[in-house]
What does this fold into?
Amino acid sequence: MPTISQIMHTAPVIPVITIEKLEHAIPLARALVEGGLSVLEITLRTEFALAAIAAIAKELPSAIVGAGTIINRSTYEQALAAGAQFIVSPGFTPELLACAAQHRLPFLPGVNTPGEIMQLLEAGINAMKFFPAEAAGGIPMLKAFSGPLPQALFCPTGGISISNAKDYLALPNVACVGGSWMLNKNLVDNQQWQEITTLARAAAGLKTKP
It folds into this structure.
């Protein structure tokens, strides 16, 4: 099983996906993977999310499919049972940290303050989701973290777009970004999968550090 750091370094962008129709899950995931984005975060925001995770994990072995919006033990264990290969949370709680330690799936908890980063470092976690990135200070905040907390590695998510992703990726403490700009709702609704592949390919081509 890859570590969360290895997963974060697989591609420069992790698509943050909300599945509105289950029949879209496989073709959408395939379009993203064909475009070079093989790490997929399926958010638990709709009734189809768990079934989508299970279907993608079964049908697309080249994808690394994770579950997002995990907020407690119940949602963690549901995602685990569905076949999620990594877990993403907007934050963290003692219960969620205990669950992650018990099950040992790659875990990406959310932070946006120095104190939260320090708590996770004390728990042995150095890979984190910086969320909501733009609202929480964006690039200047990440630069400020790098001085006293250089051991923390981030996936900024929230307000990231094709226009600012490259600037985030240039930071030494950023491994990848999370975003949904390649998941245009009209393209998904109209099943224009090739257009989504084109957007994914542009995202996958963003400059990453050697």
Observations:
- The chain has ten helices and nine strands.
